[in-house]
Amino acid sequence: MVFRTSYLVPASSNEKRGVLDYLLMLISSTIKPYFIALRYLKQAIKNKISDINATDINSFATHQDMKTRHNGNNNINFSSEVNTKSKDEILQCKAVCTNLRCDYGQESTCIYQGRRYRVGETFQQSCNTCECKHGGQVQCSNKDCTKRCTYNGKVYQEGEKFQDKCNRCKCLSSGYIQCTNNVCHCQYNGKDYDVGVSFNDGCKTCTCQTTGTVQCNSDRCGCYYKNSQYQEGQTFIDACNTCRCINGQVDCTTRVCQCTYQGRTYNIGQRFGECDECQCLFSGTVQCSNKRCKCIYNGNTYRIGETFPNGCNTCTCKIDGSVDYTTNPCTCTYKHRVYNMGQTFTDDCNNCTCQHNGQVACTYKTCRCTRKGRFYKIGQRFHEDCNQCQCLSTGYVQCTTKVCKCTYNNQLYNVGQTFRQGYNTCTCEVNGRVSCTNNPRNCFYNGNSYGIGD
């Protein structure tokens, strides 16, 4: 191995020493196994550094060759060449070394997957953390770094492929699922069919295509129309229209087959009317003779358009000689009684009227009050115990709120009533309370007790 370096030779002695130190440092940092020999050389040079000059450096570099033995087998040569023309010119040095691999304990770096790391340095390898150890060894954690994907409740490994119906899917490193976008079914007449499935539609055979469309054969298989089967090319009549089966489809004319006249329906060609004869034409219109006719109703004759009463109903003589009339009921039935149309009557305090539709309409006045199972008329006054009550127009009863009885020893007494309680007299007050006298029960005399009357 050859190392070359070039630098400017300094002028002062201190700078000379710096040049030699730099050269020795460069050699020692590059060829580590020879630290001992280098220290020896450096010490020898330092001992003479006070007397050395540019000429000495040139002489030393030209005539000094160091030779030593390593392990008794390998030769190590150090040679330096110094060319100096003046103290300000460039000094060039070179060293020639053997390319030996030296073992001096633990390595100071690690190489892992093509990259170099210092001892103690940590780095990431996927989801694991690695550290460069002494001896050039790399130690990593042992986590499972396999990426997974979840799809329809199932877990797949990174790169794993699987089938989803008619589509191919793959689990990506990002954790997402990538699938093809094939159409897996077709919809036909409200039903779903898988791709490739064939089915019948009448006499046709249909197949669900990968495009999601249904393709059916074009065989001529007749027509099905209003619950009847017709052959291809067959012609048939539908009411007043002519129809034909073509390529499985029924094609019919679009004639109007009925006429509507005065609320009634007539078939094409049909004739109707008494004195004024009418006919339903193919165009769907009605043509009449427009004769002026009369109407005969209940033995009476009426002109066309004439109106006349019939009870509570109104009748009209139509152009075709018929009579049209309303159907209003002419009486009302209310609480098992019959009333004529427009008749008014009373129901309790309410007024009622028999209407034209046969229904009875009444006012909604409140006519009485109910109190403890008894009925009272509006405005009627009555007593309830010691309180006075009145039936209001709202149908509610309003009473005073006097207390009418007293309760004493589980007995009821009317207001003002007096009663005996032992040697005392009690009275039921208007506030519902009982007041009693406070007579003593015994008499005491000379230390003796005597009852009342003793």
Automatic annotation (TrEMBL):
Start and end residues of each VWFC domain: 110-166, 149-208, 223-278, 223-280, 295-354, 332-389, 369-428
Locations listed in the record: Secreted
One Pfam family named in its UniProt record: Pacifastin_I
InterPro entries: Kielin_Chordin-BMP_Reg, Pacifastin_dom, VWF_dom
GO biological process, one term: positive regulation of BMP signaling pathway
Subcellular location, principal: secreted
Gene: LOC118763183
Protein name: Kielin/chordin-like protein
Organism: Octopus sinensis (East Asian common octopus)
UniProt GO cellular component terms: extracellular region
